[in-house]
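Narrative progress, year one. The postdoctoral researcher (J.K.) led the effort to move from monomer predictions toward full complexes, under supervision of the PI. The following entry was the first complex the group processed end to end, covering 750 residues in total.
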Amino acid sequence: MKNTRSIYSLATIIAASLLLWSCGRADGEFTGSEYMPDMGHSIAYEANVNTYYYNNTWGTEEAYYDMAHPRKPVKGTVARGYLPSKYQYLEDFRATGEETQVILQEKVRKMIIVDASIVNPIQPRDADELAAVLEKGAHLYKINCEVCHGEAGDGNGVLYNGGDGKYSAKPANFINDDFYKDGNTDGRFLNAILHGKGMMQSHADKLSPAERWEVIHYIRSLQANEKGVDYNPVAAVNVAPSMEETMEAVTEEHTEEQHEEAHDGDGHGK
Amino acid sequence: MIYQKLLNFCAVFLMIAMLPNLANAADAKSGKTLFLNKCASCHNNSMVADMTGPALYGAEDRWKKYPGDIYKWIRNSVALAATGHPKATVMVKWADSEMTAFENLTDTEIEDILAYIQVKGEFGCVEPPCQEPTSVAAGGAGAKSEPMNPMYGYALLSVLLIAVALLGRYINTLTRLSQGKMGAVVSPEKSFFGVIFNPSVVKLLIFAGVLFGGYSTVNNAIGLGRQQGYQPTQPINFSHKIHAGENGIDCQYCHDGARRSKHSVIPASNTCINCHANIQKGSKDGTKELIKVYAASGFNPSNNSYLPEDMSDADRTKVYKKWLEGMYKDERKEDEASVSTMIQEQLASVEGTFNRPIEWVRIHNLPDHVYFNHAQHVSVGKVKCETCHGEVAEMAVVKQHSPLSMGWCVNCHRQTEVQFKDGLVEGKNSPYEGDANKANKYYSKDYGYYEQYHKEMSDKKREGVTVEEIGGLECQKCHY
């Protein structure tokens, strides 16, 4: 009697062990077995996954898929913090049906560059705020720009690598004099982020409106760094003036004040 | 003897063959610098593929009919076209955007650039013989210790078993010998089966069996519903090893939701286009996988723009056929038939996928009753992606690295210290990104939370704060 019982318990252990062994673990294409799948699988749909499970009451698998598969945002909705910029949609500026994407892009680019109302809306008031903005900008630059435009902004990222990399189009060199000269407004950078330029594609989906301006602040600071001056966006110039320039500016104090007033007005209008 | 002559002949022949190249190598070198500074933003540095501007290899030949005019064209293309120059009026319509005028280039500089174009287009580098381009590995791909082969374990086990058996046999023999010497009754020699069915051995075996069975039962039961090790085939043969590893692209460039939303986000296909508008041939699969990305996103790689939404599938197929034929122009000359079949196969593979999202297989799944937020961990906690996802930059096909079980979550929350202050307490986990020793402003005194902890730390009563201590184990944080 005692013997039979121990044989039974032994058999149970072996059977349980074999059963669970055969259930197996996730490997390769196999997701592994699960118990109580109705607790694991969402009846509400989840992003990027088709978790249709037969106990779901959504109806057929096709009906579930129709709702769960990746879709575009509802027309006319704006996500918080993503209010489109004036120049966000190229189509708003289409004059004739003949215009190709490239022509349209070039047209809008010229408009943004000369538009005086395009000013950086993020205006740090003191050194601490500026440092915070630049820290954020640097982080976003590292994620989104550095691989092509390089750590220093010299247009020599690892992907380009002096012409030997995999990417064969030369990325823009921000610390080049080309980007300091008059007419290189912040709008020029905003345009490239919104619509791309040449081989560069639009990065509007990668950076929120506020983040775009943080990155532009950071690029401006890289330029200032290259020139060996302090980055000071609070003054109405993009790159802080040198000592000599400041001395000159002091003599023309009156005109400078007027200029700043005009600039402030623009800032509020934005 | 004859070989040496042949060798000499070959050497001389090679030198003669290389002479013209050596002659313009000096020019080409300075041409390279000029080209990279002035032309490379729009003209492909490979010289044989179009970009914003046309492929430049052979440009000099194409302008041979109009000697000297190529210089005028480079200095100001629009002005030359305005004069009604036959070649220029055609070329100015090549792209929608006009070529930048380079009025300041001297004749020698243009000659240098043209020399570089010729050499680069013909040989693929400035100075033949060309070296293989070195991959731009990000970070030291140091020698990683391979996990031990389980075979070694089995071998060791069997060696031990044999040793035990032999030892048993020797002991047995020695016992019988000594029994014989002492004049005692010599116990009979045991057969193999005699040993195996010995009651004590049977008991031991049963005990071992129960132990092992129990262990595997519990262990496999725990594993039920977990997907650690899941490694599905994706619709596109995308390699994180190449993109995140060799190319050093930040994880968050594509997974841009990680820093700002609950989901890390499988990127929309236009993210691929950001780089692959230019890189039109993959290093592993050529155009085979890339065409799927172009088809899904509706991008036309031939002219760097997206196709109109209302374009029919048949027209789209034509666009991609034209692009593929352009990509394999040279190969087609050599082997027309096999290249055509390849193009047909690639076109067939994207049939019906035009302008539709790519259906990647999601790997990391949490049960419905668990809430997890990426932004909270990535932006606030500054946890490195690798902490949970493993070394994805070394995975050609992504595999689930962590069990994603509750025990795993809770363990990490218990052991991980949040950055209340600069520096970490020794022995605590550091999953932090970047400068691991900087305090996280989120927990700073200025916000007015966690006053008690700050006070305790300044009183030296407390060394650090773990995730658990700021509420990381509250049930409702993840289950509600």
